[in-house]
Amino acid sequence: MAQIQLILGGARSGKSRLAEQRAILLLEQGAVNELYYVATAKAQDEEMKSRVFAHQMQRDSRWQLVEEPWHIDKLIATAREDALLLIDCLTLWLSFGLCEMGKAATIDKKEHVLAALESCAATVILVSNEVGHGIIPLGELSREFVDESGWLHQDIAKVADRVDFVIAGLPQCLKGQDV
């Protein structure tokens, strides 16, 4: 049974850990047969390489890693029914889009992602940073990023079966049923 979950939270809130735990539970229950970790980060400096490595070391061998900073819509659209895609994270995907592809291309790609989610046969868990709780940024690109991430989260929350907000490692269910 395909299901879309969105897990939001701040940096180091525990959202990725929650997503991984839910995915493993679904695998162990037999609800899915394959786990794909879709990493949207591009490790372009030593600090980011260190973060990526730390994440990789925490995951067990049941995960198949897919590094994809942009074409997550195609992965979602072609995923098999017995697969689970954990996409971590949407804010890095959005950053790549706005900075590398441009605003118009990013808005267009978002529509493709939403369409793929609506017709997806697989289970998809999307992880993203909630950045709208802070002050309004001074720079134009930063304001654009906050706006676009807020709209992205709202649009995905509409199609998601479940939405959680994680703070201090504690998930709060915003939409759907507690598992």
CATH architectural group: 3-Layer(aba) Sandwich
The share of residues in helices is 40-55%
Query: Main sheet: which strands, in order across?
Result: 3-2-4-5-1-6-7
Query: What can be said about the biggest beta sheet?
Result: 7 strands, mixed
- CATH homologous superfamily classification: P-loop containing nucleotide triphosphate hydrolases
CATH topology: Rossmann fold
How far the N terminus sits from the C terminus, by CA atoms, comes to: 15 Å
How does the helix and strand content classify structurally? alpha/beta
pLDDT < 50 stretches: none
How many beta-strand segments?
7
Q: How many DSSP H or I helices?
A: 6
Q: What is the total number of structural domains?
A: 1
User: What radius of gyration results from the CA coordinates?
Assistant: 15 Å
**Overall pLDDT:** 93
Principal-axes shape call: globular
Give the helices and strands as they follow along the chain. EHEHEHEHHEHEE
How much strand content do the residues show? 15-25%
In CATH, what is the class?
A: Alpha Beta
Pathway: Cofactor biosynthesis; adenosylcobalamin biosynthesis; adenosylcobalamin from cob(II)yrinate a,c-diamide: step 5/7; Cofactor biosynthesis; adenosylcobalamin biosynthesis; adenosylcobalamin from cob(II)yrinate a,c-diamide: step 6/7
InterPro entries: CobU/CobP, P-loop_NTPase
Protein name: Bifunctional adenosylcobalamin biosynthesis protein
Catalytic activity: adenosylcob(III)inamide phosphate + GTP + H(+) = adenosylcob(III)inamide-GDP + diphosphate; adenosylcob(III)inamide + ATP = adenosylcob(III)inamide phosphate + ADP + H(+); adenosylcob(III)inamide + GTP = adenosylcob(III)inamide phosphate + GDP + H(+)
